[in-house]
Amino acid sequence: MSARPLVLLAHGSRRPGPSCLLSRTAERVRTILPEVEVRTGYVELQHPDPATAMEGLVDPVVLPFFLARGYHVLNDVPAAVERHGSGTVTGHLGVEEHLVEAVAQRLHEASAPLGGLAGLDHIVLGAAGSRQGAALEEVEDITHLLGAHLGREVTPAYLSAARPSVRDAVSTARARGARRVGVATYLLAEGRFHRALHSTGADVVAAPIGDHPAVADLVVHRYRELID
Questions:
Q1: What digits encode the pLDDT tens for the residues 62-118?
Q2: Comparing C-alpha atoms, which of 84, 101, 4, 98 is closest to residue 41?
């Protein structure tokens, strides 16, 4: 029996930036799972759309390439699989140590010119935000895991739909005496949200984590736990 194909469905962006992180992640996954056909698609704003990404596939494994359990994970991805007529949706990326590893390394890299994490007085986790309570709980959980991993206090903050905003969290940290504030980026891709982090007043803004090797490892883990 041939391996079931894998489709990664991400959000999409009107201005995705100069590089395609999702494609690079898919290439990493292909290296780990050479017997699996791996495709990518977007639920909005970019091509290919879900129908095109799944075209011609029989019983694909479809992974919601999202960090938290928001509307797209709960509604759009399952609806796309239902319209396709076959396939199984895996868990989204969720709360996993793989993501903590990726966020921490990106922050280490970004803070290196200041002497690393020791050069930061406070760390803010910059997340997209959601109106879904479950999604915000997942951000809180990742924040706690990241703080434990780094041995530092980390404040969760959001770019939309939830409070505190990243800008307010940075301002609050400075009001409490922090001279240098770093933003640990909890976003998968370059785009509008990541660009917005650079206008929050932080001294350091980490890169997105979407193409980090640990994220590809998590994708493989989600695939294997579904088919095994």
A1: 999 999 998 999 999 999 999 999 999 999 999 999 999 999 999 999 999 999 999
A2: 84
DSSP 7: E
Q: What is the pLDDT of residue 1?
A: 55
Q: What does pTM read for this prediction?
A: 0.93
- CA 154, CA 147: separation in Å to the nearest integer? 5
Give the Å distances, CA to CA, from 91 to 68, 114, 218: 10, 37, 11
3-state class (DSSP) for residue 66: coil
Q: Alpha-carbon distance 129 to 136, whole Å? A: 7
| Amino acid letter, residue 137 | E
Q: Angle CA(210)–CA(14)–CA(162) in degrees, nearest 5?
A: 70
Report how far residue 131's alpha carbon sits from residue 120's, in angstroms, rounded to the nearest whole number.
Answer: 30
C-alpha to C-alpha distances, 215 to 17, 107, 151, 167, 177, nearest whole angstrom: 19, 15, 22, 27, 34
pLDDT at residue 56, rounded to an integer: 98
Residue 42, H or E segment? strand 38-42
CA 41-3-33 angle, to 5 degrees, is 70
